[in-house]
Amino acid sequence: MGQDIPVSRLKSTTETRPSSSPNPSPKPEAADIIVAYLEQLGVEYVFGVPGGAIEPLFNALARSARRGGPRVVVARHETGAAFMADGYARNSGRLGVCCATTGPGATNLITGVASAYENHIPLLVITAQTALASFGRGALQESSCTGVNTVGMFEYCTRYNTLVSHPDQLEPKLSAAIMAAFQTPVGPSHISLPLDLLRSPATVAAPSYDLASLLQADKVYDPEAIAVLKEELAQARGVVFVIGEGAGEAIGTILEIALAIGAKLVVTPHGKGFVSPYHPLFRGVIGFAGHTSAIQALLDPNVDTVIAVGTALTESATDGWNADLILNRRLIHIDAIESNLTKSPMARLHMRGHLASIFGELARRMKIDEISKWPPSIKRSEPSPPPRVAQLRRTPNVTYENADRLDDDATPIKPQRLMRDLTRLFPPNTHYLVDSGNSLSWAIHYLHPHDRRLAGRRAVNSSIFWTCLEYASMGWSIGAAVGTALAKPGVPVICLTGDGSLLMSGQEITVAIELKLTVIFVVLNDSALGMVKHGQRLAGAEAVGFELPQADLAGMARALGAEGIVIESPQDMDALDVEAICTHPGPTLLDVRVDREESPPMASRIRMLGTVQSGLKS
Ligand SMILES: Cc1ncc(C[n+]2csc(CCOP(=O)(O)OP(=O)(O)O)c2C)c(N)n1
């Protein structure tokens, strides 16, 4: 992900700290230097929960907030803080930062950090340790290598992970952590800082490194490989692009190329937010809860070239590693991440490099007048007209399961109808964050935001539809929506979640209340862990462990101080005052009593589980 980085203001700001501030620190501490680096990178918020050992960082953030620098946002649970940092990073293009105290604070962070690791989100994770001299002596919450060893615990979900044990290590390790977070493959870095070190006098007056310039994206690509790719396209009978999670930086140019050669577009669940569903070439989602139209586009006998861009080709992105659809010799796999390319040994061409540069250069070399020399199946008789919004379709060109449910007037409201009504009623710039659970299936399949972008340059953080697939932790969207609202002020943010997830992580709503954030929590209330219930039904397994009590979630939201509205029918949706909700300075919870018997489009997931099970038996 890219960044937007103003220059450091530490020197001037610390010098001008008002003398009237409470507990003014006479000299900058190590924690002030950490904050100065964050400020250098344009980071506005640090998400965390306080505690004794992390207090010096909170003190530094309080000083910083008073002069308009980075400030703390206190989550209710550390996992929520990591999810918030994740949502903030995805939607701002900046570093997400979360922090926790030693011991339980640090261990509570882990699920959120693991989720960001799987989704390649750049996070700086700061945890505290008890004072260095207490290591090995049984200090309260000690978690060094002689305690529960939190650095050890972060080992497998971080790109860089270290304990800072001397003040002189701080700058080298902090800058290494931040750089590692943005290096390909992007992901979380963890630094663990003892209490005494955090409050020790800073060894420098200001950051020694200008990380803003050191973090400039590496724009390397292989010009010869582009010549090969251009030739492949020229020889191709039919082309389908598969757009993945990493394609954001290049998507504008990819769409221009696709329009020029008439290639079809399918997206993975993570790529869904990069392509307008109303794009004339869009054929739907491939993989988890995807569309048969996407499968048909890939199985079309005229298609001899499938170009997968920026995708790890995971189980959920490939319909269970389906060899007929994607993983075969028609594949050209283009990625910035080496490890992604290791997932496609069957591809006939691999290309690694900076995606925006690769496709920018390809577009330059594919001059429009050359297109008339291309094979008839893909050439255009006339030079391609510039893309116009009028080319957008009224409805997406996808094949739905149970399409009739989209217009179903029944009460209780069908989840499919809810998905359609959300995009019909809420403004086109609404951002959607979709939680683990049935929301994923419903939204990937039926929710099509009114994105009016046909092509053109985009920022890497241009997606308006985000999911947590891969790690798929319940509750992710609740924290991530708070982080998104902070990254995108003035934009409506919809968090789609289930009653089980809300009961697991719903306390973060109170952060949105406190910060007056316009987040609309749409809770599919089915008195069940619905994905488990329907998964068991579809797989013919025991019906066990999915029941939840019927909870008044709108009442719960009101009790917390948010707006809470019960929705039972399509008429209730139509009666919503959407403008009031989208301008309300605070969250609204829609407690949607959905038809709990409606089966979500997750047959491919069941098939994947079944394949694995039968594979194990044989
Ligand atoms: C932290 C975590 N625990 C368990 C799971 C397994 N799981 C996936 S979906 C799901 C049920 C979610 O229920 P709910 O939030 O009510 O959403 P619904 O499926 O009913 O729409 C469970 C238990 C998970 N993904 N994450």
Overview of this protein structure:
This protein is of the alpha/beta class. The protein contains 24 helices and 18 strands. Strands 2-1-3-4-6-5 form a six-stranded parallel sheet, sandwiched between helices. It has a six-stranded parallel sheet with strand order 9-8-7-10-11-12. A six-stranded parallel sheet has the order 14-13-15-16-18-17. β3 (96-100), α5 and β4 (123-129) form a beta-alpha-beta unit. The longest helix is centred in the first third of the chain and has 15 residues, at 78-92. Thiamine diphosphate (TPP) binds at residues 436-439, 472-474, 498-501, 524, 526, 528-532.
Strand order of the largest sheet: 2-1-3-4-6-5
Amino-to-carboxy terminus distance: 43 Å
Helix-and-strand structural type? alpha/beta
Number of helices: 24
Percentage of residues in DSSP E strands: 5-15%
On the 0 to 100 scale, the average pLDDT is 90
Radius of gyration: 25 Å
The total of beta strands comes to: 18
Unreliable stretches: 1-21, 374-384, 612-618
